[in-house]
Amino acid sequence: MHLRALIFDLDGVIADTISLHYESWVRLGQDYNIPFTLEDYEPMLGLPRRACLDLFLKGRTVSEDLAQTMMARKNAYFHELLDRLTPADAAPGVADLIREGRAAGLKIALGSSSQNARLVLKKVGLLEYFDVIGDGLTVERTKPAPDIYLWVADRLHLPPHEGVVFEDSGAGVQAALAGGFRVVGLGAARVVGAAHVVLPSLAGVTLDRLRDLLARAKAQP
Fold first, then answer.
1. What is the distance of C-alpha 18 from the center of its chain?
2. Looking at the DSSP assignment, which residues form a beta bridge with residue 107?
3. With bands split at pLDDT 50, 70 and 90, how would you rate the model's confidence at 219?
4. Which of 181, 85, 81, 87 has its CA nearest to residue 128?
5. Lowest-pLDDT range, 1-15, 147-161, 207-221?
6. Mean pLDDT across the chain
7. Which of 42, 194, 195, 205 is within CB 3.0–4.6 Å of 183 for a Cys-Cys bond?
8. Are residues 94 and 55 in the same domain?
9. How far apart are CA 93 and CA 71, in angstroms?
10. What is the tally of structural domains in the chain?
11. Which residues are catalytic?
12. Cα 183 vs. chain centroid, distance in angstroms?
């Protein structure tokens, strides 16, 4: 395949911010006496902030003012935890692949539902490598709609099939596939099994290996 761009999701792909988000939701649950577990958190992966709040509420009805207050409080908790993030917290292999891709002349981009994307990239020391950043404020329709990734491809001036998307959520994989991208799913196969390639992480993944994996996936019936 003619590969011209590496396009990444953020949480769980660039850095292990998933644990920070989870801890923030747990703290919010304690504030409002709403029990919250890892099983409750899993369906939130890849979704925007308001959709996550709806899942968090588990059918409870709140006013719009209270909804905004709850989202702001959860985000404040997340920012407190984010202060401890460093370049050492980049996900395994991701920094090496980004640097190799950039050195090889590939475009590097982000397509995330997070509104904290630039801050997280800065904390892990990777912001300077990104040519295009799409975040939770970029498009109206969020994942699993393909809009964020199509927006990124448009800003990169390339057709979707010339970019590969790295995702760790079912909603994100669905979005990238719907947009016509090649997709590498990271993590549990039950979550990202529809991706063209499924890997536990990017540890040890070079551009040559990536191209080989995608070529083999394309050759499969």
1. 10
2. 5
3. low
4. 87
5. 207-221
6. 93
7. 195
8. no
9. 32
10. 2
11. 9, 11
12. 12
